[in-house]
Structures are given as C-alpha cells and as structure tokens.
Amino acid sequence: MNGQRTESNYYAVDGVSANIGVHAGLPDAAGTTGSLPASTALGTTQGLVSVDALEEFRIESSTYAPEYGRNPGGQFSFVTRSGTAQWHGTAFEYLRNSAFDANDWFNNYFGVAQPAERQNDFGGTIGGPVKVPGLYKAKNRTFFFFSYEGLRLDQPQAATVTYVPDAALRANTPAPLQQVLNAFPLQRLEHQTSARAWRNSWDMVEPVAH
C-alpha cells in the first residue's frame, strides 16, 4: 500500500499492536521500522482474527491520526465481536478436495496422476451472557465471546523436471566427490519421449508430484 512493501503495514486488534519484532525463521529480516505484520504463512490475517469473529475493520492509507506513524504502509485496524444478552453461535467448514478438481496442466503434460489435495478450513463462534447459578447473574452487564478457526492443508505441487547426474558422470567421478553425487536421486528416463530426453552430464529425472 502507498508503494510500500508488505512488511511496512501496521496491524492492530482491538487497539493492540499485532506486529512482531522479527519474522519467524528469519530473525534478521525485520522491516525498516523494526516490526513485521503477524500474518499467516499464506499472507492472510486469520492468525489475528477469525472471519466470523470480526466485527469491523478499518484501513487508512494516508493522513494518519497521531496514534499512527511507526510504519509507512497501510494502517489496518480490526475490532472483534463481543457477546450479547442472548446466546448466539456459528459454525463453518470450507472444503477443497482433489476429487472435485481436474488434474493440473503440468501433470497432464508429464503424464503424472493427480496427487491428493486436502484443505479443511473450519471453526465456529459462541457468545452470550455470563451467569453463575447462585453466585452471579449479571443480566445485560457481563458477556463472553469465543471463536476458533483451524486449517488443515495438504497441498501438493505440480510436476516439475529435476536435473540429476547421469550414470556416466557417477561412474567417472573421483571417490571424494561420490558422496556429493549420491545426494541426488537416480535418473529415470523410461517415461520420457525422445523429444524431452536429455543426454548430457546432467540428465532429466522422471517428473514427480511433491
């Protein structure tokens, strides 16, 4: 936003900063402001607020109020829902399955069967008044709200071609380097057409789906 990079955005949930000081896995990759958005691995905000638990959100792109200013990108503010005097709840399930999808174009090109794909994004919310029989009955005064969202994802990659040392190179490599070549998979050419068969020191392995 505003020509800035993604790590320049600022997130707040109910007025509390949702940015972190370092990036998971890359402790030295903090943004220029010393913080990064706490988004998920997919770059989304479910890790901050579940969609069903979101009451409202606001995005400011310029002319910030005095409460902002640390990050030069967009200012994202999320407000969560609260309980009410009546009981309310929701439940949801988002499903993706390879049984409903066509095979990938690259898989078809390489003659690879469609790998299994499973995605389940599920959760729910519940909210209502706080009551403790015989001890506390705060009608229209005290409420609670709870939400949960879980993601189970098995997402294979499309088939690709990997180049590996062929048998001739392995046979003529000095012993000290054999351990390096042994780290590569063995070449398999039986499923390749002559138009795609490479005959040189680095040959083409049978395409597989990961």
Task: Describe the structure in brief.
With 210 residues, the protein is mostly beta strands.
Question: Could you name the key traits of this structure?
Answer:
single chain, 210 residues, mainly beta, four-stranded mixed β-sheet, three-stranded antiparallel β-sheet, 3 helices, 9% helix, elongated, disordered C terminus
Blueprint (SSEs and pairs):
Blueprint: E1 10-13, E2 16-17, E3 19-20, E4 36-37, E5 54-60, E6 75-80, E7 88-97, H1 105-110, E8 118-129, E9 131-132, E10 136-137, E11 143-154, E12 163-165, H2 167-171, H3 175-182, E13 202-204
Parallel strand pairs: 1-6
Antiparallel strand pairs: 1-2, 3-4, 5-6, 7-8, 8-11, 9-10, 12-13
What does this structure look like?
By secondary structure, the protein is mostly beta strands. Helix content is 9%, strand content 32%. The chain contains three helices and 13 strands; from the N terminus they run βββββββαβββββααβ. The strands form five sheets. Strands 2-1-6-5 form a four-stranded mixed beta sheet, with no helix packed on it. It has a three-stranded antiparallel beta sheet with strand order 7-8-11, with no helix packed on it. The chain is elongated, with a radius of gyration of 27 Å. Residues 191-210 have low confidence and may be disordered.
